[in-house]
Amino acid sequence: MEKASTEAMTLNVIAHIHTAFPTKFGIPRQSGLVDSLRGEIIFTPEYRNPDAVRGLEDFSHIWLVWQFSGAVRDTWSPTVRPPRLGGNTRMGVFATRSPFRPNPLGLSSVQLEKIEIRPEVGPVLIVRGADLMDGTPIYDIKPYIPYADCHPDASAGFTAQTRMNHLNVECDPALWARVPEAEQEGLRGVLAHDPRPSYQHDPARVYGMEFAGLEVHFTVDGETLTVTDITRR
């Protein structure tokens, strides 16, 4: 019988990201799909040293290593069912980006818009295109290096068959005016990328998602998403 591995390490949370998503529903399925989404990375007190980000402003993109904080569990499975394959086909966990992994770690590449120095919290990274829930703990930040990290000829595996939906978003102007102007572009981008689970296609179903303090309800019929209501939470 194989002995259980005793190798382990402790990871320190260096920061948390603040985004428009208080829950998982509606978060883009990958980073960079909705560039208009804005997030703020605020370091924990131990790491609020401006010297730690010296030179980072010269990079356009960064890597975030983070925790699937909503998917922490004591057990793991060697196979998972990717939603993009209908939720019925099993693939090896290491061939997917499923949050249900031996170690619940996520990896995202985001655009670094700017770095602000705020007296109360130190350096704050303003990023775009993040696919993280509000409050997600971050374990590490690394610069994205194009000559090493970009592989234009890479094979996409089973994700090559993924159909990317770009829906037409319709909303009554008076209803849309309830969305703060600074959040409108991001919300429209999220809706256009079809936030529904990929296996749900009922045109009569009304979906609801939380976004930037709003409750947004919508239906999807064919290639058209219609916003039916927007309320302040």
Automatic annotation (TrEMBL):
Keywords for the protein's UniProt record, in alphabetical order: Methyltransferase, S-adenosyl-L-methionine, Transferase
What molecular functions are annotated in GO for this chain? methyltransferase activity
Give the superkingdom in one word: Bacteria
Q: Where is the signal peptide?
A: none
Domain (TsaA-like) ranges: 11-153
Tell me which InterPro entries the record gives: TrmO-like_N, TrmO_C, UPF0066_cons_site, YaeB-like, YaeB-like_sf, YaeB_N_sf
Q: Name one Pfam family in it.
A: TrmO_N
Q: Known PROSITE patterns for this protein?
A: TSAA_1 (PS01318), TSAA_2 (PS51668)
Q: Name one GO biological process term.
A: methylation
UniProt-listed PANTHER family: TRNA (ADENINE(37)-N6)-METHYLTRANSFERASE (PTHR12818)
Q: Family assignment?
A: Belongs to the tRNA methyltransferase O family.
Protein name, please?
tRNA (N6-threonylcarbamoyladenosine(37)-N6)-methyltransferase TrmO
Which species is this record about?
Faecalibacterium prausnitzii
The major lineage groups are: Bacteria, Bacillati, Bacillota, Clostridia, Eubacteriales
Gene name of the record: tsaA
